[in-house]
Structure to design on (209 residues):
């Protein structure tokens, strides 16, 4: 009987190790091939550790494996989500004009051509866009976007410093700006106007020429 009691005490004091999980990914795109116990996938070449809670949610289908990827530059596990701008920043921000901007990195660049009444939007090369940063910020370390390409951005073209008087509204998706720019034409705007948006990226700038 004493031996049984000692055995029960022994089991009580055992700290069971939580199962470790890992994901196998493509080293070029960062997309995941599969996820499972580390002991099963330990012989795979390109793997990254995933915490138990996240791994189990992926296995149970609560998180789509297609929404997950590895940032191959930072070697970090990421989950991409479709988020509306409202969820990211519920405050309307006026996009600053180039002449008033500080000398800092730009995440999203807007150029308005007065003569052609056209507006072009670009993401910075840091986010796989076409806007080339000032040489001061070179070389650029590119990063994967942590939002899905389906994330929508909306811009209000308004009276100067007045978001209540809207002349036009344009919208696009992040995917529209990956490795290319997006141009909007035939815009009828006053000589002085402002652009407002609910911010997804940190630094926006508009250059009016």
């Amino acid at each position: 009987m004493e031996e049984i009691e000692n055995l029960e005490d022994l089991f009580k004091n055992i700290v069971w190790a939580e199962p470790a999980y890992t994901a196998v990914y493509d080293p070029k795109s960062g997309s995941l091939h599969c996820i499972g116990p580390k002991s099963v996938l330990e012989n795979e070449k390109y793997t990254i550790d995933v915490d138990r809670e996240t791994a189990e949610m992926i296995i149970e289908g609560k998180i789509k494996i297609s929404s997950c990827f590895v940032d191959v530059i930072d070697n970090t596990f990421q989950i991409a989500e479709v988020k509306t701008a409202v969820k990211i920043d519920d405050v309307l921000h006026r996009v600053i004009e180039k002449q008033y901007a500080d000398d800092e990195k730009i995440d999203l660049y807007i150029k308005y051509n007065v003569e052609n009444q056209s507006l072009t939007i670009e993401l910075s090369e840091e986010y796989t866009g076409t806007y080339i940063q000032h040489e001061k910020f070179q070389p650029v370390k590119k990063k994967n976007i942590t939002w899905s390409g389906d994330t929508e951005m909306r811009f209000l073209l308004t009276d100067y410093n007045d978001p209540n008087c809207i002349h036009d509204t344009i919208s696009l998706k992040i995917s529209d700006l990956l490795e290319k720019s997006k141009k909007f034409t035939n815009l009828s705007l006053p000589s002085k106007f402002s652009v407002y948006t609910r911010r997804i990226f940190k630094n926006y700038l508009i250059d009016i020429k």
In short: The CA atoms of residues 123 and 196 lie 17 Å apart.
